[in-house]
Amino acid sequence: MVNMNQEKIRNFCIIAHIDHGKSTLADRMMEMTNTIEARDTKAQMLDSMELERERGITIKLAPVTMEYDGYELNLIDTPGHVDFSYEVSRSLAACEGAVLVVDASQGIQAQTLANVYLAMEAGLEIIPVLNKIDLPAADVPRVSKEIINLLGCDESEILKISAKTGAGVKEVLDTVIARIPAPKGNASDPLRAMIFDSYYDDYRGVVLYVRVVDGELKKGDQIKMMATDANSLALEIGQLTPKMSPKNVLATGEIGYIVTNLKTTRDAKVGDTVTLAKYFAKEK
After folding, report:
1. What is the crossing angle of helices 169-179 and 22-32, to 10°?
2. What are the sequence ranges of the domains in the chain?
3. How many Cα atoms occupy the beta-carbon half-sphere of 269 within 13 Å?
4. pTM as predicted
5. I need a surface site. Which of 5, 31, 178, 264 has the fewest CB within 10 A?
6. What's the Cα-to-Cα distance from 157 to each of 151, 175, 229, rounded to whole Å?
7. Given a cut of 70, is residue 16 above it in pLDDT?
8. Is CATH 3.40.605.10 the right assignment for the domain spanning 6-179?
9. What CATH number was assigned to the domain covering residues 192-283?
10. pLDDT value at position 39?
11. Mean pLDDT, to the nearest integer, of 193-220?
12. For residue 201, with 0-12 CB atoms within 10 Å meaning exposed, 13-18 middle and 19 or more buried, which class applies?
């Protein structure tokens, strides 16, 4: 059985080198989908750490759910720096597609290649985007050739945009819907949710970022981490818009958060599977 809304879900990430405009593109997407109002916008909305905004580097990945044209678009922001390749691999595992953003004045950088190869190995649909085409130093023909050589795509498949002005961003959103496949998974199967990030909140306990692979999770469910054998309670579940927006159910294919009563992230390791504790009750 497929979740009724599953066909309308798109899970994707953005791959880009530092300063190639990834955070700016994410900001424009959130504005264009009315996820955030223009007056609430501050530069690099997904970069929550002060160091990230100060230096323009994305370190901590953050998911955001956007509603656009009847679709649920789940964007996972990824680090652009090669030192954070493990964070990138976690993001890719939760997605079906990746938007590759390349600066039209700088071309493809070596650090970006590593992440593109990770995406290719994961079987993701890659959408090439040429950013900053409005800059005087932009060399669209040269950088387009680099992208064609890397991906083996046609030039017509490369989207040419300016994330700063918003030109071409709507086409990126439309292409995400058209080219990235809906998530697979069975809504009637037992719950399987993959943890792709977790952090400890002084006031709320351990918060998990998850991708629901099969089944569904409801608020108040008793949950179990398969690898660590830790049991917990889903005190609150929901999606990030980009602030926490509580829901009663996270369905198959969706990306969201779980507020638990765990005391340490050691009990909820990245890559672990969350399931329901009741599946193991009969064994005792």
Report:
1. 80
2. 6-179, 192-283
3. 8
4. 0.88
5. 178
6. 10, 10, 46
7. yes
8. no
9. 2.40.30.10
10. 44
11. 93
12. exposed
